User: What shape does this take?
Amino acid sequence: MEYTAKYITPDIKLSCYEDRFFKSDILFDQHMLIWFISGETKIVQADATYFFKKGDIFLIPRNQLATIINYPKDGQPHKTVVMHLTTERLKAYYATLKIRPTAPASPKILCYNNHPLLASCLSSLIPYFEMQTLPEDLATLKITEAISILRTIDNSLDNVLANFEEPGKISLTDYMEKHFMFNLPIERFGYLTGRSLTTFKRDFKKAFNATPQRWLTQKRLELAHYQFVEKKKKPIDVCYEVGFENLSHFSYAFKKHFGYAPTALLMNGPAL
Assistant: This one.
């Protein structure tokens, strides 16, 4: 995979994947505003799956888990402009505004496809990538412009952008049952459930009577089995969607757990 990124500030980049695809499980620490230039992206979250293509614009709220799969399309690389709306910048933006956000129960990816104001704002950054730098005051103006446009076209967005709270302690059982397919370090699951690593491991053992890694592997394989039997999905798709990093490791783990390979299950059903 050949990946290149051009930064004009730490918060604004032009991202380009030239190869067949790129997959990663990601926890977004900051809000991300993305404009598609070419290629396709599939984003899988616990409650929804999204597909984005050339011209699409969307905002991914912070502290969201997702599986990201990027593809080239029509001979063009996967290329996007990415703007990070950091907590620091947003606090400065909202400092003079009397906004009391009501935190959304579960922030979703927000789509603003082909919106002319946002497209104009983000496309105007393209010439700066050739310069390799952007004066800090101008970068601040461009990010402020993007925030202002977003608030103009979506009057509920303050509930997302002006909410600076960190994750509090929540039900570990409910959260893990919903998000087990995301391949994150255990300490990040602890952060998202409001726990230290030590407390997370202790509470996990009490809740599931198993270590996190053993339980996660079993849950992912069970989900994969369901996807094959009920959804008739291909192994290459299931592998990445349930939290494995490569097909060979997934196939080995699946056969070890169930006694037959995914391909045998799809073609003939499991051997009895």
User: Anything to note?
Assistant: The longest strand covers residues 31-38. Residues 212-231 form the longest helix (20 residues). DSSP finds twelve helices and ten strands in the chain. Strands lie at 3-9, 12-17, 22-27, 31-38, 40-44, 49-52, 57-60, 65-71, 78-85, 110-111.
